[in-house]
Here is the input.
Amino acid sequence: MAISHLVAENQSAFVQGRSMMHNVLICHDLLRHYNRKSVSPRCLMKIDLKKAYDMVSWEFLEEVLHGFGFPGQFIQWIMLGVTTTMFSVKVNGVNHGFFAGRRGLRQGDPASPLLFVLVMEYLSRILHVMSQLPDFRYHPMCKKVKLTHLIFADDLMIFCKGTVESVNRVMEALAHFSAATGLEANIEKSSVFLAGVDEDTRSQILLRTGFSIGQFPIRYLGLPLSPKKWKKTECYSLVDKITQRITVTYSKQLSYAGRLQVINAVLFSIHSFWGAVFILPQSILKEVDKICRAFLWGCNAEQKKIALVSWEKICLPKRKGGLNVKGSSNWNIASVGQLLWQIVVNKESLWLKWIHGIYIKTDASIWTHKVPTDCSWYWKKLNGIKILMQGWYNQGRYMLTQFGNYSITRSYLALMGYRPKMRTAELIWTSMALPKHRFMVWLAIQGRLLTEERKVRMNIPVEDVACCMCDEQVMETTVHLFEECKWTLAVWHEINQWTRTTIQINGITRMLDKIKVKHWVQFKKEIMAAICGAALYHTWRARNWKKFKGRNVHTEEVVLQIKKEVIGRLSLLNKSKQAHKCRDFIQHLLCN
Here is the structure.
């Protein structure tokens, strides 16, 4: 039996098909009028459970599993894993003995989150029974969907009318839950939010709960929530969080390719989490892009550097000439578009019931829905992007994927518009090449390497425009350095002898084009593309050592380094199915 059939929709953690962003959106809707003076009484409790995983009663857990009807043998297996925990205490750096646990769930055990969800379901059922008592009153807007609480793991929000009687019922339910499960509210970390109540009622509620009055914005599931529309000042924590991940030392230690990986894997995940729920202010999105752009090119507070390629170009997919960095604005719209898709396809969820109970009260389509004047700002923003996405749907079906499931990536690409594909993209970004080589090839193809000739065109002061790798006193251009320079030609002579090929050096783009049309198997083409990338990278590196460190790099040294890196990569991929198709060529490279 799926856990989603056992657990109420109020819980969204660790249950397939449910989303934490629905909790955030519903909670944000409920906060809307908390800043008004004249409003109906309402109460919201943000409750932190004290050491949640460590305090679960084993006896109660076993009763819950029996109550849900799990097989006896299965329950024995589960309890065997739960009740055999042993602990040791480290005193002055030395472990002392082991002692048995008496309660709690194992941290890191894959089953623990699901068991905790089942424990919290008991609270949902207590609150459901409580809501049917005659002296309990629902929080405004909650009666139609019978909403009393939202749970995400150990994050608990409880809603009721701002009356002493309703709060008493909630506290009785919490006391009953605590006595049964061992889970208690942390008084110091829990808070209560009130609106539309008089001072006497406020005092009685605070005395009954023991919680302090909360301050806006609330930090809920990592996002700041308040009754007002998100403004730039409320989103500064997002900018600060991204900035904290970037230090001067961190930036200096990484290559361009390393920084690109940090942007895609670390920085992107931070702002995409926020952007999956709300349409963020454009000023914040521009600031995020600015930080990522500066980090990529090695800028910091002490040193400014030139952005070698435009951010718009960088945000294109790799197959279309970019670096596949996600532009914050379009990705934000595409992410929030998933909420629109859920409404269109009528995907069952608590949030959808909420939307139909509060906003779309008729059978009207979301496309024809008129936004009410008194609604949350996020609902206005969501309806504001409908015009961008309506063309992606046909009779309620999302048309950008084969089976109609929403894809943020496909939507993002649709928002970017048509861009022609790059012919040699698969050779530029082949896994045979090292990441730093691939990035350098990409820069060279864009014509953005900072040669002396390009510095002159950009009005950057230059002491000597001549190529430092040869004695011909010719201006250093991309064409000269990589196609005509005697030093480079000597390197390529050695490479051609090593590979037993006759690749002509006439520009990296044309070289890759010629490799692409060769009657070679694909794996051999990728090997040759990797060799070209390594040669270009080490040529540019040798040029920089000569110009900035005064060190002469011999061609033999460069060729040895190219061979070492290519062979190292080959040794990792040599056992693939594709490698067998050019086994003789690979064997020759490995032996020479």
Notes: The mean pLDDT is 91. The chain has four domains: 3-225, 232-324, 331-416, 425-591. Residues 3-225 form one domain.
